[in-house]
Specification:
The complex is a heterodimer.
Chain A (H helix, E strand, L loop, with lengths): L1 H4 L2 E6 L2 E6 L4 H7 L19 E6 L6 E4 L9 E5 L19 H7 L11 H5 L6 H9 L3 H7 L8 H5 L6 H15 L5 H11 L4 H9 L2 H9 L6
Parallel strand pairs in A: 1-5
Antiparallel strand pairs in A: 1-2, 3-4, 3-5
Helix pairs in contact in A: 5-6, 5-8, 6-8
Chain B lengths: L1 E5 L2 H5 L2 H14 L2 E4 L21 H17 L3 E4 L2 H16 L1 H10 L11 E4 H8 L1 H7 L8 E4 L24 H8 L3 E2 L13 H4 L1 H17 L4 E4 L2 H12 L9 E3 H8 L8 H10 L7
Parallel strand pairs in B: 1-2, 1-3, 3-4, 5-6, 5-7, 7-8
Helix pairs in contact in B: 2-12, 4-5, 7-8, 10-11
Classes of the chains: A alpha+beta, B alpha/beta.
């Protein structure tokens, strides 16, 4: 009954109307309406990029994109979630590539079709300047691309809106991979740790964990040391 | 002289020697090229339909950045080197100058940048040299390339289409601007019937045999006129002509160089030619190896 007093919003989940408290996030509102997430829900903290949600609001022609776990519902909101961005994940071997635009174009030739319409940027829930990052790559400025896309969570909203059919988030993953491998100084501690792993320093402890039963694992997890 | 400069993707990725030789020559000639900050891809071969505004956005975004930078340095002249970029930028700019509705349309669409006021002038580097004056250029030449026979190759994008009016940098049927450049740097232009012949363009992607057929004809014609090099203003033509060379015997090949590379060589600055080609040229003109 107490909820009745709260201001409510009407939202349309795939066309069907529900009244939900207007303080909820889209994700909470969908659960409030009785749905149970089996896709389009991950970290609930705005990091994983799973809950990409497209919506319109009444009397507004614009199509908006947000993360369901971050965006509060609005009255008369028409919602649909994307459980998956349809795109092949091309394979590449960073070790056999060079940190150049031509190498990126070899795997993603469609970046040359960019029209500079900037619709990708408008779609980004992370406020990344997606078009600028693609154009930086066209100019051969890998560093600029990497810096502009550091906050990308690969939700793929840009790629669903692009008239040139670019899968920007994958392009940026490749760009950051190439830049990280060839243009930055390797972190010393990382090099050392990889060497330790390769030498098998952690094999014993790992196999101990692998043999442990679930209950014991849970107990261990609860008691774990948390870094400060 | 300070001018805005639009490089284009080919110069930044595939043919840096085109850009580097231009910078070297410009420094010697007192031309300061100011690269447009965050220029966008020109759009390449935009639809010929002038009402397909979406295809013009890349060019317009670059114009806006150029316009803002131009206010700082006090110029409205944008120089391009790549003939394809020249064609696209020139055409879009002319359309925006002529069609008020189209201009309003793109300015309304691009709501994240200042409006474009179509006051820029898009100029190809060859036209800039022509405006400076080939006679004046001649006076600055340190190493005249005497005895070198050069086949001028024009590339379609500098000459066609004449729509909107004002795109070609010269007479489309019988251009002479590259010949004039060749004379001013002390070399001799080859009378060359295929100087405006199409290289096969983007057929290189799916039908390379078309490009091979055409470029063999072009190279063969230059060779029959005893040309030592073919001079190209276009990255794609250069790519295709080099592809044609690769299908020919070594004795039948004619090296392809960018016009700015010979210009730089004659101005006694770094030409960014391959050592082999530079040595060939120096031998031909009876000069010493140039470092």
């Amino acid at each position: 009954m107490s909820e009745e007093k709260k201001p409510m919003a009407t939202i349309y989940i795939m066309g069907k109307a529900y009244k939900v408290p207007n303080t909820l996030t889209i994700m909470k509102a969908i659960e409030y309406a009785g749905y149970r997430f089996i896709r389009s829900c991950g970290c609930r903290g705005g990091f994983c990029g799973s809950c990409t949600t497209f919506y319109r609001v009444k009397n507004d022609y614009k199509l908006y994109v947000d993360l369901a776990c971050q965006k509060r519902v609005e009255d008369e909101m028409y919602i649909v979630q994307l459980p998956f961005i349809p795109a092949e994940k091309p394979k590449w071997d960073l070790g056999k590539m060079k940190p150049t635009t031509d190498e990126v174009i070899r795997i993603f030739p469609e970046i040359t079709r960019c029209l500079s319409c900037n619709v990708c940027t408008e779609a980004c829930p992370q406020d990344i300047e997606v078009m600028r990052a693609i154009q930086a790559l066209r100019r051969g400025d890998l560093e600029d691309t990497v810096n502009l896309t550091f906050d990308c969570i690969s939700c793929g909203a840009c790629s669903m809106r692009c008239p040139a059919e670019i899968t920007h988030y994958q392009v940026f993953q490749l760009a950051r991979g190439l830049y990280g491998k060839y243009e930055t100084i390797p972190a010393k501690h990382l090099v050392e740790r990889v060497k330790e792993i390769e030498e098998g320093s952690f094999d014993d402890e790992l196999s101990k964990l692998m043999d442990m039963n679930v209950e014991k694992l849970k107990e261990l997890y609860k008691k774990r040391e948390i870094e400060k | 002289m300070e001018v805005l400069y639009y490089p284009g993707c080919s110069l930044k990725n595939t043919y840096p020697e085109f850009e580097k030789s231009t910078y070297a020559a410009c420094e010697k000639l007192g031309i300061n090229l100011v690269e447009i900050p965050e220029w966008n891809c020109c759009g390449v071969v935009p639809s010929l339909a002038t009402d397909n505004v979406m295809r013009h956005l890349g060019a317009v975004r670059s114009f806006i950045n150029a316009q803002e930078k131009g206010k700082e340095i006090g110029t409205n002249v944008v120089v391009t080197l790549c003939s394809m970029c020249y064609n696209v930028l020139k055409r879009v700019n002319l359309i925006l100058k002529e069609q008020v509705d189209t201009l309003k349309n793109v300015n309304d669409f691009i709501d994240d940048q200042p409006d474009y006021v179509p006051e820029l002038e898009i100029v190809h580097f060859l036209s800039l040299l022509k405006n400076v004056g080939f006679d004046k250029l001649k006076e600055r030449i340190a190493i005249p390339l005497r005895g070198l026979k050069v086949a001028p190759y024009y590339s379609c994008a500098l000459l066609r289409p004449d729509r909107p009016k004002g795109v070609p940098i010269d007479d489309p049927e019988n251009p002479t601007v590259i010949e004039n450049l060749i004379r001013s740097i002390g070399a001799e232009p080859a009378e060359f019937p295929f100087k405006t012949e199409c290289c096969g363009n983007y057929h290189i992607v799916f039908e390379p045999h078309i490009v091979e057929m055409r470029t063999k004809k072009i190279i063969g014609s230059a060779r029959s006129e005893n040309a030592d090099v073919i001079l190209s203003p276009c990255p794609l033509c250069t790519y295709n002509l080099q592809h044609g060379n690769e299908t020919l015997d070594r004795s039948e090949q004619v090296p392809v160089v960018f016009f700015t590379q010979l210009l730089a060589l004659s101005l006694d600055v770094k030409s960014h030619l391959s050592t082999e080609i530079e040595n060939q040229i120096m031998k031909k003109i009876g000069g010493k190896k140039f470092v």
